[in-house]
Specification:
Blueprint: E1 2-16, E2 22-23, E3 26-27, E4 30-37, H1 41-56, E5 71-73, E6 85-92, E7 97-99, H2 108-114, E8 120-132, E9 135-149, H3 153-163, H4 167-170
């Protein structure tokens, strides 16, 4: 069972979209880890889809082993920024189409400078249930990404850092 889902207004946690991530020194896959607000429509919908996949495949116990799910509970994370969110990791073997806010294809430089930690994106993903010699799990394929809004994290950190310092301390 495969289910294509439109993810709206997710926050980028990690992104390898301009070039694939590496594993043991070799190129691996293109990937995107997104934070999805649990209270958002998308957050409520995606958890229902994962649960439906597990029920359809009569595998409710997999719900209790997050290592086998593309969707993880951010409340179980050590990172404060993950709290209240679902963490969805999606990947793709071939390079993913990345679009800007005007739906034009982004260059590799634009991807690398825009789709960064803290940026807001929309994504098209496909959840799929794996049941083969490698085990059972729920995986997620990344089909396309649209940049929606630039990261606010760096700007806030920069401004708050300097607002707390006296100019004489710096120079």
């Amino acid at each position: 069972m495969n289910k294509q889902i439109k993810i709206k207004n997710a926050v980028v946690s990690f992104a390898n979209l301009a070039q694939p991530s590496s594993y043991e020194g070799k190129p691996n896959k293109y990937d995107l880890t997104m934070l999805i607000d649990k209270d958002s429509e998308t957050g409520k919908m995606i958890i229902l889809e994962v649960q439906a996949m597990l029920l359809q495949n009569d595998n409710k116990q997999l719900w209790y082993d997050e290592s086998k799910l593309a969707l993880k509970n951010g409340d179980n994370s050590d990172y404060h920024s993950n709290q209240g969110n679902w963490i969805l990791k999606a990947n793709s073997g071939p390079q993913v189409v990345c679009l800007n806010t005007n739906k034009a294809k982004m260059s590799l430089d634009e991807i690398q400078s825009s789709i960064v930690k803290g940026a807001t994106v929309n994504a098209l993903v496909t959840l799929w249930y794996q049941d083969n010699q490698y085990g059972q799990r729920v995986n997620c394929i990344l089909n396309a990404v649209q940049f929606a809004k630039e990261s606010q994290t760096a700007t806030k950190d920069f401004e708050s850092f300097f607002s707390e310092l006296d100019n004489e301390e710096i120079f």
